[in-house]
Amino acid sequence: MSGGYPQYPTGYGYGAAYAASSAPFSAPPGEKPLKDKHHAHGGSYTHAECYASPFAALLPSVFPPGTDPNVVACFQLADQDGSAFIDDNELQRALSSYNQSFSLRTVHLLMYLFTNSNTRKIGPKEFTAVFYSLQNWRAIFEKFDRDMSGKIDANELREALLSLGFAVSPVVLDMLVSKFDKTGGKNKAIEYDNFIECCLTVKGLTEKFKEKDTMYSGSATFTYEAFMLTVLPFLIA
Fold this sequence. Notes:
Layout: H1 69-78, E1 86-87, H2 88-96, H3 104-115, E2 121-122, H4 124-144, E3 151-153, H5 154-163, H6 170-180, E4 189-191, H7 192-212, H8 224-235
Antiparallel strand pairs: 1-2, 3-4
Helix pairs in contact: 1-2, 2-3, 3-7, 4-5
């Protein structure tokens, strides 16, 4: 699988600005992100990316030191059976209690990217990471929603993605807007929850590609199975 992308700003692709893309996924207060061999190339994975297989069981976890008591209370309210895990529906209700609705698809994508598994359950550690990342996403959305319309249009989306280190081509940008516009492309704009889903998809697929493209050449080789396992979680979240 291949594709050329000269380094930003002369072309399109993750290029030199890629390192900025980890900002919305910073570790919560009091916790350091994990590092592995991929970090030799300047990337930084959060603790959520420690699971090797999308089919691995989610391990029990605890709240990181310094977690806001309101975050703890929110999780405990959602965890009605006291299992130390909450499922996708419980996470959706917990997040929606903060005056913002999230589709189950967006919730599933958040859970997948913060556990690297399809278990659709998260513990205190992962919930905290999701909570703090959403605060960062809200700040990014409001920064580029300059007319305060509650929507991001194509130009604003392009600038938002550039700020995260992703320089996508005009063709890809048009596809993203059409895909994540709730009106099916009529408004040519994306609302907050779909903006998160859009950025998570671009980020997730770029990181999967980057794992194979260790030389930043714009080319990567995938087996058929690896390609399917890379793409399908983003299509069927």
